[in-house]
Design brief:
The chain is of the alpha/beta class. The protein has a single domain (48-251), classed as SGNH hydrolase (Rossmann fold). 43% of the residues lie in helices and 10% in strands. The protein has a five-stranded parallel β-sheet with strand order 2-1-3-4-5, sandwiched between helices. Helix 6 (142-159) crosses helix 7 (185-206) and helix 8 (214-223) crosses helix 9 (241-251). The radius of gyration is 25 Å and the shape is elongated.
Length: 254
């Protein structure tokens, strides 16, 4: 006759404790052990009124495109998603990105040797020139800003004589204050608008495409809090902010 194995009361308590501890461990640690899927920005929905958009046409017809800019082009704080990410499914060109958080037109000129030869350049620079009131690091007047843009284009044309250009006006800064700028928000907005107007005039004279995303972004901020779109007061989040900035760049191109 076989003898049935039986757990002692002490062994049952230890086994119960072990099972409870294992369940708690898995509950706490499993989310960390199994990584979440990487976030992804969906493709921008191209509505009928955007199908003939000039910026979209250039991006979808070029064989190579270089996006140049600052933190918004680099994708600072949002997981590395640049403002143009929702347009990538429509772009068959080889895509380059020359950008870095904090870059001004002066910093970009210093790094202009890293810009590759391409057919199309989409340049969105100037936000930090508006914010950083320091002549050593930035263009503190619209005249200096335009002078730097002209020099940048000249250097690019030296390596890509037949290149096309799209210039995007400085991105707006939300009303959140700026620790390194002594100017009030209203003054910063006025300064940004003057830089944008000067850039628009330059593009008209040079026959380059120009876009000012600010009006469309500001309109959305009036409808819904900027906190819905921004991670701080300037950097768009990947879920709502990047699609907004992307659409704004298209709609700002007249």
């Amino acid at each position: 006759m076989k003898k049935h194995f039986q757990f002692s009361e002490k062994e049952i308590l230890l086994l119960t404790f072990f099972c409870v501890a294992l369940v708690l461990f898995l509950f706490v640690m499993l989310p960390h052990l199994v990584p979440n899927p990487a976030p992804k920005v969906p493709a921008l929905e191209i509505s009928d009124d955007l199908k003939d958009n000039a910026l979209l046409h250039e991006l979808t017809s070029a064989s190579s495109v270089c996006f140049v800019g600052d933190s918004v082009t680099y994708g600072v704080l949002n997981g590395g998603f640049p403002w143009y990410d929702p347009l990538l499914p429509y772009i068959t060109a080889k895509v380059e990105n020359v950008s870095l958080g904090g870059w001004t037109t002066r910093y970009l000129l210093a790094e202009s040797g890293t810009i590759p030869s391409c057919e199309l350049y989409v340049i969105a620079i100037g936000t930090n020139d508006v914010l950083v009131n320091d002549p050593v690091r930035s263009a503190t007047t619209e005249e200096d800003y335009i002078s730097n843009i002209v020099e940048l284009k000249s250097r690019i044309c030296a390596i890509s004589p037949d290149a096309k250009f799209v210039f995007i006006a400085p991105w707006i800064a939300g009303n959140g204050g700026d620790s390194f700028s002594p100017e009030e928000f209203a003054e910063l907005k006025k300064k940004r608008d003057s830089y944008a107007a000067a850039l628009s005039d330059l593009c008209i004279s040079e026959k380059d495409l120009f876009s000012d995303p600010a009006p469309f972004i500001e309109e959305r901020f009036e409808e819904e809090s900027q906190d819905h779109y921004l991670l701080d007061w300037i950097h768009p989040n990947y879920k709502y902010g990047v699609p907004l900035y992307c659409e704004a760049a298209l709609r700002g191109c007249k």
